[in-house]
């Protein structure tokens, strides 16, 4: 059976095949196939996936050395047991301070176009070191982190094997980004149904799928194999909030309060939801969109009251759970 989440360790000790150069001078790795996902995805020309780089990236991801007081690792907030997101509405940094936004999942970011809720980073390489340096998160300057890494022979050796050089900011970012690209999720009940396993989805989930793509209009934003358009929308989650979202990046008033559409892969494992973690359950999310979202003058034009019945909501819930391999598809209310 294909795994639902593939980690770097699955690649270690085996050759990693690369396809010929893709469009734009990029190359796409041939990782073990995952039902429902494209086997090819773009990676930077200067950062090919190799077992040594992935192993190094994984080691860094789980190492508390990356935080000022050595109390947090990347995995402290991007928890593997929680779909590489956090169970808290806002994670806690090295001083116990709350982060500005909810920690999103890292699953399937290999297929992404923008990083962070506001899309301020366009590549994983430009994203991964920002939480390390953020004063509300790990609060460690990269220069200090490099000093720590160069003082450890094991890391010096690992960087030499992976990059042929001592640790520097570029190779540090590349190692972490490479590991994140291996975190993929698929092979859900929905995917098995799409591949011909007709009994994979119960009737409720099938009805929910029809609603998702039809009257409920969820697929207007949650589209494609990763169930996200990778664009930015104002859903009125926090009307009047001091967080302007995408506007801070573009300066365009039309982007005020807009945040990136998250993937729905493993969505049953990644509560709470929304950029501020304000909705604690999938049931609450469905109710929110049934009302037509929140009140905001920049509200996305796709949102309107749905007037779903109780059974409609249960069916949508069953479909959403079908996107998480280990989730029960039975209604909870």
Which labels suit this protein?
two-stranded antiparallel ribbon; mainly alpha; two-stranded antiparallel sheet; globular; Cytochrome Bc1 Complex, Chain D, domain 2; 12 helices; 333 residues; 4 strands
Give the CA-based shape.
globular
Would you count the extended β strands for me?
A: 4
Q: CATH superfamily name of the largest domain?
A: Cytochrome c-like domain
Distance between the termini: 31 Å
Oligomer: single chain
User: Which CATH top level class of the largest domain fits?
Assistant: Mainly Alpha
Counting helices, strands and paired strands, the structural category is mainly alpha
Approximate helicity band: 25-40%
Mean pLDDT: 89
Strand content: under 5%
Domains, number: 2
The CATH topology of the largest domain, please? Cytochrome Bc1 Complex, Chain D, domain 2
CATH architecture heading of the largest domain: Orthogonal Bundle
Order of helices and strands: EHHHHHHHEHHEHEHH
Runs in which pLDDT lies below 50 for 5 or more consecutive residues are 1-28, 327-333
The helix count comes to: 12
The strand order across the widest sheet is 1-2
Let me know the largest β-sheet.
2 strands, antiparallel
Rounded radius of gyration (Å): 20 Å
């Amino acid at each position: 059976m294909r795994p639902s989440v593939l980690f770097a360790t699955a690649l270690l000790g085996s050759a990693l095949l690369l396809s010929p150069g893709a469009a734009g001078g990029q190359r796409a790795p041939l990782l073990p196939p995952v039902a429902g996902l494209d086997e090819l995805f773009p990676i930077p020309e200067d950062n090919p996936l190799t077992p040594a780089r992935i192993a190094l990236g994984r080691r860094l991801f789980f190492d508390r050395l990356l935080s000022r007081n050595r109390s947090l690792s990347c995995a402290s907030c991007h928890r593997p047991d929680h779909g590489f997101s956090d169970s808290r509405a806002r994670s806690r940094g090295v001083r116990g301070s709350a982060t500005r936004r909810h920690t999103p999942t890292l699953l399937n970011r290999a297929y992404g176009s923008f990083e962070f809720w506001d899309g301020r980073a366009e590549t994983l390489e430009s994203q991964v070191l920002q939480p390390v340096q953020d004063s509300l998160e790990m609060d460690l300057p990269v220069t200090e982190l490099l000093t720590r890494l160069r003082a450890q022979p094991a890391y010096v050796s690992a960087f030499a094997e992976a990059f042929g050089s001592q640790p520097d900011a570029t190779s540090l970012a590349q190692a972490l980004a490479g590991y994140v690209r291996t975190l993929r999720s698929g092979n859900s009940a929905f995917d098995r149904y799409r591949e011909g396993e007709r009994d994979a989805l119960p009737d409720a989930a099938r009805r929910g799928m029809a609603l998702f793509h039809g009257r409920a209009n969820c697929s207007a934003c949650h589209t494609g194999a990763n169930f996200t358009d990778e664009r930015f929308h104002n859903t009125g989650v926090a009307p009047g909030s001091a967080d302007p979202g995408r506007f801070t990046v573009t300066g365009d008033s039309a982007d005020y309060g807009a945040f990136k559409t998250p993937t729905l892969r493993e969505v049953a494992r990644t509560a709470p939801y929304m950029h501020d973690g304000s909705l604690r359950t999938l049931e609450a999310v469905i109710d929110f969109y049934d009302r037509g979202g929140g009140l905001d003058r920049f509200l996305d034009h796709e949102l309107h009251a749905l007037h779903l019945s109780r059974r409609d909501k249960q069916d949508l819930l069953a479909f959403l759970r079908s996107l998480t391999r280990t989730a029960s598809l039975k209604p909870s209310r």
